[in-house]
Amino acid sequence: MNILNSPAPAAGGNGNHKNLEACSIVIFGASGDLTARKLIPALYHLFKDGLMPPTFRVIGFARREKTDASWRQELRTALDQFSRTKPVDDKVWAAFAENIFYCIGDLTDDAAYARLEKQLGTFGNPALRDNLLFYLAISPSQFGEVVEQVHRSNLLKRDGPGWQRLVVEKPFGHDLASAEKLNHELTRYAHESQVFRIDHYLGKETVQNILMFRFSNSIFERLWNRESVDHVQITVSEKIGVGDRGGYYEEAGALRDMVQNHMLQVLSLIAMEPPVSLEAEAVRDEKVKLLKSIRPLSLDDVAKQIVRGQYFAGSVGGEMRTGYRQETKVKPDSNVETFAALKLFIDNWRWSGVPFYLRTGKNLPMSASEVRIQFRPTPNVLFAAQCGSHLDANALTLRLQPNEGISLRFNGKVPGTTIGVRPVRMHFSYDAEFGAYTPEAYERLLLEAIAGDATLFIRRDEVETAWKIADSIRAGWEGRSLTNREFYSAGTWGPIAADDLLAQLGHTWHEPLVIK
Ligand SMILES: NC(=O)c1ccc[n+]([C@@H]2O[C@H](COP(=O)([O-])OP(=O)(O)OC[C@H]3O[C@@H](n4cnc5c(N)ncnc54)[C@H](OP(=O)(O)O)[C@@H]3O)[C@@H](O)[C@H]2O)c1
After folding, report:
1. Nearest Cα to 260, choosing from 360, 187, 193, 190?
2. Pair 149, 26: CB distance under 8 Å
3. Would you say the CB of residue 170 lies under 6 angstroms from ligand 1?
4. Which ligand 1 atom minimizes the distance to the CA of 140?
5. Ligand 1 centroid distance, CA of 498 (Å)
6. Is the pLDDT higher at 4 or at 351?
7. From edge to edge, which strands make up the β-sheet containing 368-375?
8. Cα(138) to centroid of ligand 1, in Å?
């Protein structure tokens, strides 16, 4: 059973009807940003919606001096800021907060884990001691230490009693070798099935809906192949620049920050074969198969099929932005890419010859994520006189954020006595149809991790295959300085080279839709 075959949501609920076992959620990195901004608000909302297990505890682990009471108070203040529903419900919070505890300690200190183990024992319910979700909201360089320590403290076992799971955050390595090392550390004392790697994109309602849409609508399902699809465009654009994250971005760049994880995840859901069932392993098998079918990129291919870019100063929506090389903690001669565009081919039966274009970047004109399926045009015989070669081909756009929805573009006759043809659109908007229901991705992901359903998490071979692709691209960029054609003004859709990439096959980028 998993999220994709759960019953339809009740008003305000999210469609999960799982009998969740009592458990304790141990957050390593309890005093950090992720905990305050995402994890506690997500748990609070799950509790508020009646979706948490009937009995649970949350234990925060970090070095800073705090008591249960002071930590609860801090979290409450943070919740006022980060909760997606406001104001925070005092009664609900009070009931939720009774389950929250703090364990002070250093991740390298054996005695701290002994205290943690003891604390779990004091809850008086064996399930709260044995069913443990370890959320590693810490640096990946600390994963190995924590896994070893919780194992030594008898809190992490491969074969029970109860269940223990490790939830880990991106960045999941910075290349294949580092990802393999992390995977090795995580699975030294746990089965792969106990490791839940988060890509928060997979927690988004609309990303999950890709499979539902593809495999439950026969009119589209039969068109989803090389016979009907001309090409596919996946855009994840950000209006913001790197801001105060220059230090992080210098180590990451758009390829590691967006493409290796979120964009390849979306691509695999869009292009994968139907799984034999909606069970986690079946879905993940197909995603990995798809990633492995992406045509490998030689150094020469990278030069021809991959474009990188970096923004210089320019105006975004009327606001002046500084150039990347002038951002704080960025080297003045940095070659790090703030934009990437890829032309990928999937060498399998379904997609042979169909280009998949992916682009992402910072300081672009709008923040939007969408997938556009561009269908092949009809033969241009009947309307050539009126429309020339400009008769529009049909396109289906899956808008992932914001204003989630689906839009179909087709041709209609302009009313009147002449034959005029004009593309028109049919829009479906989630909000208009189902009402505003926007759970945070972390709510869904935490719930799935508590339930032990790994469908929405990234498996080891998936992450490693994605790194192989990213590494082959980096190898092509290695040691090459950016050229003039690779710079773009903040507020534009990337460098000219990105347009040239599509022009090779007579294609053009389509601006993300604004669905109202
Ligand atoms: N923040 C986000 O929105 C976000 C989003 C995606 C991924 N992530 C990833 O999630 C992880 C955590 O991010 P963050 O932003 O929350 O980081 P952060 O604000 O720097 O928090 C780090 C946490 O780790 C704890 N910590 C560090 N060293 C420790 C030690 N030796 N012993 C015990 N605790 C230790 C710190 O607690 P003390 O200082 O109290 O010890 C703090 O609670 C990172 O890997 C990050 O890349 C974060």
Report:
1. 360
2. no
3. yes
4. 45
5. 36
6. 351
7. 420-429, 405-414, 395-401, 368-375, 229-237, 355-361, 339-345, 306-312, 487-489
8. 4
**Which DSSP string corresponds to 91-103?**
HHHHHHHTTEEEE
Count the helix, strand and coil residues of the chain and give each as a percent rounded to the nearest 5. Answer: 40, 20, 40
Taking the CB of residue 9, how many other CB atoms lie within 10 A of it? Answer: 15
Which residue from 135, 138, 172 has its CB within 8 A of the most atoms of ligand 1, so it is best to mutate? Answer: 138
Task: State the average pLDDT over residues 347-362.
Answer: 98
| φ, ψ (nearest 5 deg) of residue 158 | -80, -35
Average pLDDT over residues 466-490: 96
Would the pLDDT of 10 be above 50?
no
Task: Point out the catalytic residue in the list 184, 262, 427, 510.
Answer: 262
- Cα distances from 466 to residues 32, 176, 224, 233, 484, in angstroms, run 28, 8, 23, 19, 29
For the chain, list the domains and their CATH numbers.
3-171 (3.40.50.720), 202-503 (3.30.360.10)
Centre of ligand 1 from the C-alpha of residue 136, in Å: 8
Tell me, using a 6 A CB cutoff, whether residue 169 lines ligand 1.
yes
Residue 262 is among the residues annotated as catalytic for this protein:
yes
pLDDT tens, 170-216? 889 999 999 999 999 999 999 999 999 999 888 888 788 899 999 99
Q: What is the pLDDT of residues 384-429, one digit of tens each?
A: 777 776 678 999 999 998 888 999 999 888 888 877 888 899 999 8
Q: CB count, 10 Å around CB of 119?
A: 18
* Percent of the chain residues topping a pLDDT of 70: 95
Residue of 226, 227, 213 lying closest to 396 (CA atoms): 213
Q: Say yes or no to pLDDT of 95 above 80.
A: yes
Atom of ligand 1 nearest to the CA of 37: 3
Q: How many Cβ atoms from other residues are within 10 Å of residue 419's Cβ?
A: 12
486 touches 310 (CB < 8 A)? yes
Cα–Cα distance between 163 and 257 in angstroms, integer? 32
Contacts of 13 (CB under 8 A, 6+ apart): 49, 50, 51
63 lines ligand 1 (CB under 6 A): yes
Q: Is the pLDDT of residue 511 over 50?
A: yes
| CA 62–ligand 1 middle distance (angstroms) | 9
- Establish whether residue 37 lines the binding site of ligand 1, counting it when its CB lies within 6 angstroms of any ligand atom: yes
Rounded distance from Cα 33 to ligand 1 centre (Å): 7
Residue 157 token pair: 């076992």
**Which range (136-140, 241-245, 262-266, 435-439) has the least confidence?**
435-439
